[in-house]
């Protein structure tokens, strides 16, 4: 399997003293879904922002085999790295369709139209409401819109920050099922930040457990198939710090 993303020795500092991420290394293969799991403050968002180029970091980040650490965020977007932040950040007063168009702003008008239709096909829940203002969508639909907007940019790597945040379990399941379908239909690689192990197991291939800015454990989805193994990982890695 070819590696899409390779992160080695990644560290993130806020200011001169606070270290949010310490010497983190992991890789994502073509079409793979890799989950970063950990409690609040474990450093997950900082890792995603560092990969997207939104905050400075140390260490090496390779994308498609090439170093990207020195590239500005917009250049990383052009290469196909798209970050979908937690909290959705859609434009409330614009329609669903307009929000999608924003995600494909750099595409030619015709490609933008084709892609908008493709994304709406993927999310029938929001397709019915394409001309409604985004604030009128439910939480789950807003999350679908945020992911859909990310997909507008034809990403090679989607960085998804807690898509389940603030959603009822049934809606989370729906969002994750859509993600699983997208992943089956394309070669898209995904880094998923989650606090919910069971949910992320629905789509991911590998999991890295984080605590205090470090990776403290690694499992494949196959390792965690049975309940006992899953509980053991939860106790070992997600229990009290
Ligand atoms: P959450 O799920 O709450 O977003 P997280 O695992 O994504 O948690 P980060 O948001 O990456 O964790 O935060 C890691 C550490 O860095 C925390 O101790 C946090 O307080 C700190 N931190 C995050 N952002 C900043 C910032 N802008 N300035 C200073 N410290 C920060």
TrEMBL record:
Domain ABC transporter per the UniProt entry, residue ranges: 5-237
InterPro entries: AAA+_ATPase, ABC_transporter-like_ATP-bd, ABC_transporter-like_CS, BCAA_Transport_ATP-bd_LivF, P-loop_NTPase
GO process annotations (BP): L-amino acid transport
One term of GO molecular function: ATP binding
Pfam families reported for this sequence: ABC_tran
Keyword field: Amino-acid transport, ATP-binding, Nucleotide-binding, Transport
Keyword Nucleotide-binding in record: yes
Record family assignment: Belongs to the ABC transporter superfamily.
Protein name (database record): ABC transporter ATP-binding protein
